[in-house]
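To the structural biology subgroup,

Please find below the input and predicted structure for RNA methyltransferase, which we are adding to the shared reference set this quarter. The sequence is reproduced verbatim from the submission form. If anyone notices a discrepancy with their own records, reply to this email rather than editing the shared folder directly, so we keep one authoritative version.
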Amino acid sequence: MNENNKIIANGEKYTMKLIDITHSGEGLGRIENMIVFVEGGLPGDTVEVEIKNVKKTYAQGRLLNIIENAPERVVPACKYFEQCGGCQLLHMSYEGQLRVKSKMVGDALERIGGLKDIAVNPIIGMEDPTRYRNKAQFKVDKNGMGFYAKQSHNLVHIDDCLNQPESAADVIRTMNAMISDLNLSIYDERTHKGYIRGILHRTNLEGENMITIIINGRDLSQRPAIVDAILAGIPNVKSIFVNINREKGNVILGRKSLCIHGVPRIVEKIGDLMFSISPNSFFQVNSKQTVKLYDVIKKMAALKGTETVFDLYCGTGTIGLYIADKAKEVIGIESVGDAVLDARENAGLNQIDNAVFLHGKADEEMARIAKDENIKPDLIVLDPPRKGCEETLLNAIGDLKTPRVIYVSCNPSTLARDLKIMITLGYGILEVQPVDLFPGTGHVETVVLMSREK
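Predicted structure (tokenized):
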């Protein structure tokens, strides 16, 4: 038995000083060298906790009382913060959030990547860290719309969300009333019965709204009444869709979306470029900070107009198109076919003719292009999902001996893991720049510039 388990037991109460915080918003402290996680705690808090769930190397503590507040502790502006699982850090000042996120990046690089002497640039934050999201996926039950509670599938019913635009309150009020007035049944994921599964709200910086109703059915019943209710209650609606999802489980969107009113796409402007958005499109949820993120990438790329750029995990082509004006050629590779079609549409929308987008696995397509077409990149941009890159892809980059690589990450842990591999392949790290795209949450975006060392 671990010696700590003899000291710390379930039900015991302790006073402790918290020294750190996790990305999921749990304060962290130590009792007799045992790590204790405390939901609702902040670094700098002195707290009284009741020990529960003692494990071999850590325990969880239930917060009983805050004896002394951390300097960064604030009263959350959102009245749902204690219940809703959408945000983790609203009880911390925004300046405190930024410091914590920078530390998360540095700690991950050192602890997971073994990178002890890497400087992390000051994080790029928002002037106003509210109302920044352009997309909301609302769950629905018989009592209305909302988001899941922390670590559960229990719905927290809300009348507004401070991360969403002001029109979100109109969406919630209108859709709740419409579902009630038209007596539309609600989907139950346990029985796979019921009709309405959720509501997707997308918007842009112009304030145009796209409303998608997700149903467990083949067609939208009472369509005229639904369209009339949405247009009457929600301002500036440009599109209304029905999304068909008859799969079991709690995934909100199905693959088939049908436009039943208005235009099939809304357009978002990022810098000087326009991007077409449908219900199923992948797009960064914070348009204002996306400009800052992409400007960081463009600055690090330092293109002179003679370079070939491979944009891997390119999604709908946003990064590749943003830097295409400075490159000779951009080749985007993406494994999701619908995203490739969106990328090609976005290239046409912006009249960019030096960017092509290919459907396939990045490592395989990259090797094929190098072999069959004798095209090798001067720069590779990586923007993988949270799970990071496949090791086969990193090895393929090493095989090509690409001079420079820019890695765009939404997960410091997998970023650090992958950077450790890149170093073994002969790359050195030149710059690390965090950008806050998700205020109020524990998520942080990071851009890393690497070069192949001779």
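Summary notes: The chain has three domains: 3-68, 135-270, 286-452. The first helix runs from residue 3 to 7.

Regards,
Lab coordination
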